[in-house]
Amino acid sequence: MVEANEHTSAPAGTPGSGPRFARVKVPPTVPRLVPIGASGARFTFLGSLIAANLASLFAGVHTSKSYLFRVTRDADIEILDDEAGDLLRLMEQHVRRRRFGAAVRLEVSATMPQEMVDYLMQSLELSPDDVYLIDGALNVPDLMSLYPLGRPEVKDRPFQATTPGELQQKKKTIFEAIRKRDVLLHHPFTSYNTVVDFINAAASDPDVLAIKMCLYRTGQRSPIVKALMEASERGKQVAVLVELKARFDEENNIEWARRLSRPACTWCTD
C-alpha cells in the first residue's frame, strides 16, 4: 500500500546561471479543484492555477513551462517482534516517518520533457519501469469533490440499504429479535445502522454487563466508540481490541486508543 504527494515542477533560469529545476510542493490539505466565478459550477485544477502564476512565486526569475508530477512512496509498515513492546508509540513514529518513505512510483504529465523525467528518476532513484505518463487528470479521485453539486442527471441512483424485517418491528427490542432467531447482516446491502443500533442498545440496557468487540477501522466521529464510552461511564465492562495497523487509518485508531485509555475500559492494541 502507498500514499502519494503531488507537486508542480518547472525549469527556471536566473541571469548569469544555467537552467534550474524548481519544485512547488502542494500540501494534501489544499483542494485540488478551485471554483471560478460566482456560480460555483465552474472549476479549474489547482495545478493549472499554480502554473499560471509562477511569475509571482519566482519573482525576478524567468520561468519556462511547468509540468505536474506525483510521487508515490512506500507506506508499508514492518514491525519486528522485538520492537512491539509499546506498539502504540511505535506506530505513531512510523506514521510520522511515512511521508519520507522510499519512492516506488512516479506519475508525470504526458507533455513533460524527457530531460525533466530523467532528472526526477535520478533524484528519486527510480527506473523507467517506475514512471507512468498521465494524459489527463493526474489524480482522478480529485474529481469527487464535484459530487456534492446538484446534478442528479449525471449521478447513479442512490443506493438504499435494507434492514432485516426482524429488526424493523418497533415493539421488539433488538435483543428480543435475536433471542427468537439468528439475524444475518450482509454489508453494505444491509444498513450498517443495524450494528450501531445494536451497540447503542447494549450500552443503555441495564441487563448488559459487558461489551467485548474488535475495532478495525474507526472514523473521526465514530458513533460506535461514543456508545462504548457511554457504556463504560455506566459501569459496564468494556474490552475492545483496536487494530493500530489498519492501513491508512492508523492515525484515527491511534487517536481513539489514546482517548479511550481509561481505567473503566480495557483497550487492547494490536
Give a description of the structure.
The protein is of the alpha/beta class and 270 residues long. It is built from eight helices and eleven strands. Strands 1, 2, 5, 6, 7 and 8 form a six-stranded mixed β-sheet that branches. It has a three-stranded parallel β-sheet with strand order 9-10-11, with helices on one face. A two-stranded antiparallel ribbon has the order 3-4. Strand 10 (237-242), helix 8 (250-259) and strand 11 (265-269) form a beta-alpha-beta unit. The radius of gyration is 25 Å and the shape is elongated. Mean pLDDT is 79; it is low at 1-5.
Quick gist of this model?
This protein is of the alpha/beta class.
Number of helices: 8
Give the quaternary arrangement of the chains: single chain
Mean pLDDT: 79
- Give me the strand/helix succession: EEEEHHEEHEHEHHEHEHE
Structural class: alpha/beta
- Shape descriptor reads elongated
- Roughly how much helix do the residues carry, as a percent range? 25-40%
How far apart lie the N and C ends? Answer: 19 Å
Strand content: 15-25%
Largest sheet: 6 strands, mixed
Count of DSSP E strands? 11
Spans with pLDDT under 50 lasting ≥5 residues? Answer: 1-5
Radius of gyration: 25 Å
What is the strand and helix layout of this fold?
Layout: E1 2-13, E2 19-26, E3 33-36, E4 42-45, H1 46-52, H2 54-57, E5 62-63, E6 67-74, H3 87-97, E7 103-109, H4 114-124, E8 131-134, H5 174-180, H6 193-204, E9 210-215, H7 223-233, E10 237-242, H8 250-259, E11 265-269
